Peptidase S8
Amino acid sequence: MARRGVPALLSAATLVIGGMIAASPSSAAPAPTTHAPLTASAARAHVHTHRLCAHPSEPGYMACNAVARTDVKQQLSLRPHAAPSGYGPSDLQSAYNLPQSGGSGQTVAIIDANDDPNAEQDLATYRSQYGLPECTTANGCFQKVDQNGGSNYPAPDSGWAGEISLDVDMVSAACPQCHILLVEANSASMDDLGTAVNRAVAMGAKFVSNSYGGPEDSTDPTSDEQYFNHPGVAITVSSGDSGYGVEYPAASQYVTAVGGTSLQQDSSARGWSETVWGSSAGGEGAGSGCSQYDNKPAWQQDSGCANRTVADVASVADPATGLAVYDTYQASGWNVYGGTSASAPFIAGVYALAGTPGASDTPASYPYTHTSALNDVTNGANGSCSPSYLCTAGDGYDGPTGLGTPNGTAAFTK
């Protein structure tokens, strides 16, 4: 059976960050494309979060890797000239040196379990708020299908609906000109989610985002790799939200495993800085480590893990420096979400900006030949481990952030 999501988040005591949280309903024009600043250093002691999906309770099932801030007040609409809390598209485009144009004609597929009945209308609110082009069924930009390619959608679920909102908003932030294909699996089983991946590829998507994971299993390389072995398709997978440790399908040798960072504005030439999302105490943060069962791909050369090492690249995922997301299915509108469920669809959008992969390529290999086009993350940890690079950032490759975060799109093309 499908994993059930959490109920609508409670309006806990509001943490006013940057003085920009608004609660008064308004039908006024959209706010400027600025964010209410969130800084990990200032806010972390006060951050309260809630996973949107429960951990898998049985083998073969997955959980979404989305985390909601419960100390930032949800709001259905905003005061005039107010901005949602959390980073918006212009912030992410600045932080990762992304073009505002590009990706026209590309389709990014989002794979999730269960239905979000409000997906299209919530996406419209997000894109209108930030001045992004309309993306609707009517204009051909947005399409939602079940895992068989039809409209017999699965049962709705509040947790996965929040995940879907996060996914489509992050693709929009990275690649505003991209089309979005939402494929809803019947349940959170790997078989149903994998069937949805295959459906997305069959429908022509060259970029497929998967923001879920579960415990590794010895049968993964033989029973589940069929869902991810798609030459010429960039498949991204979130690395997990529980700190040091490996999840599947991030461990697949055919996918780009995406870790997570804390992202903050600063006075550097870049204007931003990043550290690993997590702490040396572990328990929360981007997943990473050495796979127990999956083979090491030829393009991965780190010496401390004979099998597949997670992750490959990263982007913002820390809910303390989280993303503005609009979600109304058993939720109350503007939220601040994080988790590596944010970074996987964002990186899928970056791949789409970079262009269609070579027909016989494994696009996960691309960043390994363009390391100078990535921001190397050198500080932070998501747990304790040996060898230490599997859980601790340093110069060059490390587990929690891989080779680094996007600095433009050059690292995501051949």
Summary: The longest strand covers residues 285-295. Residues 197 and 227 are 6 Å apart (CA to CA). The radius of gyration is 19 Å.
